[in-house]
Amino acid sequence: MTNIDQAGTFQLGSRPVKRLGYGAMQLAGPGVFGPPRDRDAALAVLRAAVTAGVDHIDTSDFYGPHVTNQLIREALSPYPANLTLVTKIGARRDEKGAWLPAFSAEALTQAVHDNLRNLGLDALEVVNLRIMFDVHGPAEGSIEAPLTALTELQRRGLVRHIGLSNVTAAQVAEGRRLCAIACVQNQYNLAYRGDDALIDALARDGIPYVPFFPLGGFSPLQSSTLSGVAERLGATPMQVALAWLLRRSPNILLIPGTSSVAHLRENLAAAELHLPDETMAELNRIGTAA
Length: 290
Description:
The chain has one domain (5-217, 249-258): TIM Barrel, CATH 3.20.20.100. 39% of the residues lie in helices and 17% in strands. It contains ten helices and eleven strands. It has a seven-stranded parallel beta sheet with strand order 3-4-5-8-9-10-11. Strand 1 and strand 2 form a beta hairpin. The longest helix is centred in the middle third of the chain and has 15 residues, at 105-119. The radius of gyration is 18 Å and the shape is globular. The protein starts with 8 loop residues before the first strand and ends in a 6-residue tail after the last helix.
């Protein structure tokens, strides 16, 4: 399997991690709810990722719920010393799988303990507070109350570093006034470029930005541009989209998810894909297309 060293590293909390990691969300069942279709395949993907050099895995106890964390523990515990597990709190699932806000102090405390139990850890390395004022995307509003609750859990030694997810630039600024922010995780990709200024500001301060949905929000026209570039480079559109993100800014950390070892290999190979300047310019125009 492709080794991912060529992607380089960036500091996440107190640890340097390789810029191409792995997201565990797709290991749960359909709709990120319930058990995986093939448990053995899910375990195999996790083990293959670590064998290939992945040292940053993104997860959450509301994936399943509990499913991905329990799979991670079964597949990888005792954990390699260099493996950084990043989880998210701030949401919950109802009995039908709907995503609901859960960022009261009580809910956040319970979520941290659930993550600790299911991952088999004494402390969580990085916890992203997912803001749920709008389930579908960032929405303005003060994050002081939930973030203060999370910093108390950090003070107690249950959480080492705190990140933010599904947030606006104003919320990032507010969060940084309240505590050190280890990372920001928002939707961002070739076609969805709303966080361009935020990424650059975070890069100047050495804070990683972790985009999710690397192909979300594409129109057929934009997809045809991406597909054309991929064909010329002998790569897949997903590999090109990931390579573009790696080159977009040095503080971008990637967490593409998959439940397939073959797809994992394809994703990790994006670290070796060279995008010439003229190709970058062509791809950059996707983000400004009408």
